[in-house]
Design goal:
By secondary structure, this protein is of the alpha+beta class. It contains 10 helices and 10 strands. It is elongated and about 60 Å long.
Length: about 280
């Protein structure tokens, strides 16, 4: 069984419960969770803490559509198929353990996952923009050329006016995914979302996409909207303040709800499944 990363955090414990019941396909009672928390921390958890964990689970259960678990009395039960949703397990692993080992793969997978969700939300088009770039002309070998070509590609696809590229030190200038609703007649002026993904534990400390800076790189006919994506569930008490600070929020709830019909990118499905399997193998020792 996967260890509880932080037995003092109600959100971490709630994440751990979601992950455990999905993988084992067995329910967990409040008393069994209390016993496991005591083993992990060396102290018996207070009833008020357990109540807050169950309150958080109830909050999530009401928001997931469709839900991944049910809560009956003092027991959380997984619903069939929850453990087979690789995007769900991947988000839980990232929420609990973040991006480890310096690998860029999990962050890039989360960008692609978010991109597909944004496309569903807008019923529009998306582009994964985050550095390092996946597809760049072979002639663009230095960072400055790569960034300039990527911004030009973005401007061209959105029929907006390219002005200049961010300085090389800024890389992607805080933007990982772009989503837009085109009119299909090759003119500028449309709904555009500039989104940053934060797959690690430091998501609260990261700044949202600097839209004012992007206004100097692309001469948008209409100003874009900033957005922010995380693999965790943003709590009810944090929701308003984080929305004001970071823009439209796409947390695990919204991403998975948007992808409830399944992923369309077959390569992403395979890569997510492979990464999840590797992570679970490492965690289970």
């Amino acid at each position: 069984m996967i260890e509880i990363r932080d037995p003092s955090s109600e959100t971490d414990v709630a994440d751990w419960i979601e992950l455990t019941i999905s993988l084992t396909e067995e329910g967990l009672s409040k008393s069994s969770v209390a016993s496991m928390l005591e083993q992990a921390s060396g102290e018996e958890p207070a009833e008020v803490f357990l109540t807050s964990v169950w309150r958080e689970l109830n909050y999530r259960h009401k928001l997931y559509s469709p839900p991944f678990f049910t809560i009956e009395d003092h027991t959380v039960q997984p619903l069939p198929g929850a453990g087979s949703r690789s995007e769900y397990i991947a988000c839980l692993l990232l929420s609990l353990f973040g991006v480890q080992g310096g690998s860029q793969l999990p962050a890039k997978l989360f960008e692609r996952l978010t991109s597909e969700a944004i496309g569903r939300y807008l019923s529009g088009q998306t582009l994964v923009f985050g550095w390092p770039f996946d597809s760049i002309d072979n002639d663009a070998t230095d960072e400055e050329s790569q960034i300039k070509r990527k911004v030009k590609e973005l401007s061209s696809r959105l029929c907006e006016k390219f002005c200049e590229a961010p300085a090389p030190r800024f890389k992607d200038r805080g933007m990982d995914v772009v989503g837009w609703i085109p009119f299909g007649e090759s003119r500028s002026g449309q709904v555009v979302i500039l989104l940053q993904c934060a797959a690690g534990h430091n998501w609260r400390d990261k700044h949202p996409v600097p839209v004012d800076a992007w206004n100097q790189y692309v001469h948008w006919a209409n100003n874009p909207v900033k957005a922010y994506a995380v693999p965790c569930v943003i709590t009810e008490r944090d929701w308003h303040d984080q929305s004001k600070d970071k823009g439209i929020l796409f947390d695990r709830i919204r991403i998975l709800n948007l992808l409830s019909g399944g992923l369309k990118d077959k390569n992403l499905i395979d890569e997510l499944q492979s990464w999840v399997s590797e992570q679970l193998s490492e965690l289970n020792g």
